[in-house]
Amino acid sequence: MSDALVIFTPSGKRGRFAHGTPVLTAARQLGVDLDSVCGGRGICSKCQVSPGVGAFTKHGVTVSPDALTEWNSVEQRYKDKRGLLDGRRLGCQARIQGDVVIDVPAESQVHRQVVRKDVTARDIVMDPATRLFFVQVAEPDMHEPSGDFERLNAALADQWGIGPVDAGLDVLRALQPALRKGKWGVTVAVHQGHGIARPVAVDIWPGLYDGGLFGLAIDLGSTTIAAHLCDLRTGAVRASGGIMNPQIRFGEDLMSRVSYVMMNPGGDIEMTRVVREGMNTLIADIARAEGIDPRAMVEAVVVCNPVMHHLFLGIDPVELGQAPFALVTSGAMNLRASEVDLVAINAQARLYMLPCIAGHVGADAAAVALSEAPELSDDLVLVVDVGTNAEILLGNKTRVLACSSPTGPAFEGAQISSGQRAAPGAIEAIRIDPVTKEPRFRVIGCDLWSDEDGFGAATKASGITGICGSGIIEAVAEMRMAGLVDASGLIGSASQAGTERLQPEGRTHVYVIHDASDTGGPRITVTQGDIRAIQLAKSALYAGARLLMDEMGVDKVDRVVLAGAFGAHISPKHAMVLGMIPDAHLDQVTSAGNAAGTGARIALCNIAARAGIEVTVGNIHKVETAIEPRFQEHFVAANALPHAVDPFPELSRIVTLPNVSFNTGGDGTGGGRRRRRA
Amino acid sequence: MSDALVIFTPSGKRGRFAHGTPVLTAARQLGVDLDSVCGGRGICSKCQVSPGVGAFTKHGVTVSPDALTEWNSVEQRYKDKRGLLDGRRLGCQARIQGDVVIDVPAESQVHRQVVRKDVTARDIVMDPATRLFFVQVAEPDMHEPSGDFERLNAALADQWGIGPVDAGLDVLRALQPALRKGKWGVTVAVHQGHGIARPVAVDIWPGLYDGGLFGLAIDLGSTTIAAHLCDLRTGAVRASGGIMNPQIRFGEDLMSRVSYVMMNPGGDIEMTRVVREGMNTLIADIARAEGIDPRAMVEAVVVCNPVMHHLFLGIDPVELGQAPFALVTSGAMNLRASEVDLVAINAQARLYMLPCIAGHVGADAAAVALSEAPELSDDLVLVVDVGTNAEILLGNKTRVLACSSPTGPAFEGAQISSGQRAAPGAIEAIRIDPVTKEPRFRVIGCDLWSDEDGFGAATKASGITGICGSGIIEAVAEMRMAGLVDASGLIGSASQAGTERLQPEGRTHVYVIHDASDTGGPRITVTQGDIRAIQLAKSALYAGARLLMDEMGVDKVDRVVLAGAFGAHISPKHAMVLGMIPDAHLDQVTSAGNAAGTGARIALCNIAARAGIEVTVGNIHKVETAIEPRFQEHFVAANALPHAVDPFPELSRIVTLPNVSFNTGGDGTGGGRRRRRA
């Protein structure tokens, strides 16, 4: 009886095996990605396969119905007790006795691909650091004394070819009861990390544990902390949640928090405490809502800017507030979660923090780089993560540059007269009729425009309360397009621009978007000060991008990616009218959503991505805006809307900006004070 | 000008060097052991050398007075400020300009030898895991951003050829202030450990730190915790101290502590807490008395028996209380001291625990093996560490065996009618006149014998309060030699043995050593029960040794080493009269003092010793007494004084034991109940 031909799909791997070979064994010998936790004992069902029957002309084989052995008692017991989908077999029990084509379904693959759900998500190939391994451990023998842990390691080596593993005292403490309760069979969660010397046993359960393994991808922002609870086996995001960063009470922006530490010795310790507490609260809330045992959360990846990085790690951030902006450490961090008091997850959970690129370009920018992979791009891509500080990446396969630019909080609706956070009632989109100069707008929480029927009723609950970040960008851009604001950023008077919505306020004018002051409601306007604030912010952003373009020796980019939660809500056309970003074809301006969070998820789910981003970050060339004289030149030139000198040919193709000028000599062009906001 | 011949003593290493070569450079190139902390900057003075002048016929060179350069300003400044012994030069500043013989004094050697002070101490070659390294770190550069820690690592690699080092968050936290305060020069304590993947930066100081580095060698016993504060540079024991193990309130012996855990869930946690607290108190007291900064204590080595090992690590010890006596882990432990709450030393200090040999033969026995090195012995040596449980090693270069034997607490004066701890007032030595049968004795705290003038006055303060462990051993042996006790252990009556000091008590007799009952003082006697207790203990000890001899296929050992604080006080002759130990020439029975503590000190001061003892322990063959039928046979046969069947030819040469027999049929021979005391 000659060996049987076995063909695995979708990999196409094939080989000949002696009759009686278990399917799992054949898969392993061929390097086919077929999962198993129990190591072939027919109890975990992770190695399910779908054998085909009949003629497979593509492969040149015909599979007879008895190509695999009949169901044995182990397999039958599993099916009776736990159920199996039709056509599925347990790869460790079914044995080969004829030529066969065997499909490995996605859920039986360790390295399965998590297919993106929307255009802003990246595909992730699963290769988590922490996996479960069931082992049968030898019982102790007085004549050959050895520790239970030494025999556990022997079993891991013998049955899985891994280890020796390290184990913390918590795991050693749990070992003896688990072995005895599990009748010497235990499931070990082993972290085979990158960046640590030896694999680590994170936890241990008696018998076969199948309660799932989870990890947290955490985007620790200055304003909000967002966490994604990810299934480490499937890569699925089980739940997401966010809270305000409780450090806000020490300062809205990062620089004010650094100042707080400078003025209040020990203030960093307090801020470290509250951010860790906040993170624990967030994680505990998510886990409770999902019914997830804290022990099952065995990993976390945290991305954040350098100041948050230091404050989270318990390191004084004052050096980051002054040149030369020295980080304590720029490297990736491999920690035990307990080192940063993350008590809401497994006591032995591992924590990975991506490397920082520089003192102003943090692990969050590294996460954006991991998500958007400019180093793999054929065309030249500009990635802009808009926030209080903008992180900017420019690059392609040849070279990647990075800088940060102090945009300030205007893009987030702060320091804007009618500005507010993105919350129900906030104007998030606005259009101004170029003829009538009348506005119409949409508020968060309602899909109707303000001139549509039912808008009043639909927004009654929330009210119309202010303008959020994307709203103010659109407002200023629309005012420019409608000829209410000139290229210098000056708001015209009612007579100059032809609408009574332009009203004097002091020596300048405001544009009234919405006025409910007669009923005690708000009067929502765009003031000259608001325009100046937006100009400062957008000039900083543009100047940063421009500096990278200089360094790269180009005056045009092929595409622009807007990252960040805020980036997802910006209208590319309006951004370009403002001159926030360099001129590009509008089709080539896309949003990447929360790219930093996506990068964190990738690092959580794929261990190789960690080594990869560490190499990438090492190759990224950092351009320091704070000391670059051309930055100031670019900044001043970028003050005009869209720009004093740079042509915007792509923009010109779709928008013709009114050639108005309201400057009567009184007000300058706004190239005012600028201070770095870290 | 040809190169100069440079000869270093005492190593004898020689080589030719270009004129102008610093002595330190020449030493390094030749592999001469010449210390330096500052890396050749002329500030640490660790590289002091003594150049010779004149004719050195042995080496065939004549050294002219100008063989080394004149004092330069750095060297002169050091001498003016800190002083240098006559004839000493700084090796990093003095340069070679002629043939020269240079002596490296012991204190300038890293791997100096600590010469033993008494016969029980082992020589230790210094090679500590943690050493100081001064580095000048590059300042941060905005254009080439990197973390301070990354530049520290670069400096360590460049200036010392070590690293990259890992650093805990505490060290990262201290890094930036230290660098700036030290003007980018810092001293790092680097632990280049065995058993850890990468070197660890334990602490960091601004500028050149010269406050010393210390380590603790801790012998964690069931009854007492003893700690030696060692200078990690010189190996000197700076101070020692001890306290009672506070776990005693949960049970005097180990088995009763294990029982406490079995009966009181959570009892192990409580015992873990108190033993760690006790250790912290002990360390803090020693450090305070010596004026040592807790930060300067950067390492600890702990040795202990398996039950203490588990309780100290916070691991439930119940499995050690029952067959098969499974350890959670038998391997050596490399921990951070903070993992076991050792807060009295540096927060980042490292803790090493020696491996355990088996469930009853712990890290303390491993430390004895490290101290006594039976695996290096040409002759066959029996090492007995006497305690509540005796650990016994037998071996030579070919093979080493180990077992433990449940001797019980009798040797420590417990369960003895007049027994007490070794404290002032306790009888520690006794002689009985073979003719008059009258005793004379010595008590702890007084050098006089009881029949010498002034004894009464000298012992007035302490009184005569009882018998300690070594006292009861001598008492029983002397009674046997004086014919008051027969070979079966039975005490004769006054008429049988011819002294009124033998008095009836119930159905048996007692020997009155001291009677102060008429003045309200104690009446100190040796009872039949005491003899039986000693017989049980010594039988267990002898049977264990005998079992190892069987396994080794010998009926005689070449020498016997008595280890343990108690072992130091036992009279070899009396021990042999009792048959505690196998027959040997008395000159070949020696005391090793606190060999476990010595082993801990060796592991603390010499990193290679850790790897060595781990290999040795792996090669030691464990014999389990609890399940070995021959143990019971040996135990019964060993009940007689000195032994029922084994001849004691060496003993016979110096002592003739009276051939008496007092058995009138009433009392048995004492092979009574025996229970394991772990």
UniProtKB/TrEMBL annotation, chains A, B:
<dbReference type="Pfam" id="PF17650">
    <property type="entry name" value="RACo_linker"/>
</dbReference>
<dbReference type="InterPro" id="IPR001041">
    <property type="entry name" value="2Fe-2S_ferredoxin-type"/>
</dbReference>
<dbReference type="InterPro" id="IPR012675">
    <property type="entry name" value="Beta-grasp_dom_sf"/>
</dbReference>
<protein>
    <submittedName>
        <fullName>Uncharacterized 2Fe-2 and 4Fe-4S clusters-containing protein, contains DUF4445 domain</fullName>
    </submittedName>
</protein>
<feature type="domain" description="RACo-like middle region">
    <location>
        <begin position="214"/>
        <end position="370"/>
    </location>
</feature>
<dbReference type="InterPro" id="IPR042259">
    <property type="entry name" value="Raco-like_middle_sf"/>
</dbReference>
<feature type="domain" description="RACo linker region">
    <location>
        <begin position="121"/>
        <end position="210"/>
    </location>
</feature>
<dbReference type="Pfam" id="PF14574">
    <property type="entry name" value="RACo_C_ter"/>
</dbReference>
<feature type="domain" description="RACo C-terminal">
    <location>
        <begin position="380"/>
        <end position="651"/>
    </location>
</feature>
<dbReference type="InterPro" id="IPR041414">
    <property type="entry name" value="Raco-like_middle"/>
</dbReference>
<dbReference type="InterPro" id="IPR052911">
    <property type="entry name" value="Corrinoid_activation_enz"/>
</dbReference>
<dbReference type="InterPro" id="IPR027980">
    <property type="entry name" value="RACo_C"/>
</dbReference>
<dbReference type="InterPro" id="IPR040506">
    <property type="entry name" value="RACo_linker"/>
</dbReference>
<dbReference type="InterPro" id="IPR036010">
    <property type="entry name" value="2Fe-2S_ferredoxin-like_sf"/>
</dbReference>
<dbReference type="GO" id="GO:0051536">
    <property type="term" value="F:iron-sulfur cluster binding"/>
</dbReference>
<dbReference type="Pfam" id="PF17651">
    <property type="entry name" value="Raco_middle"/>
</dbReference>
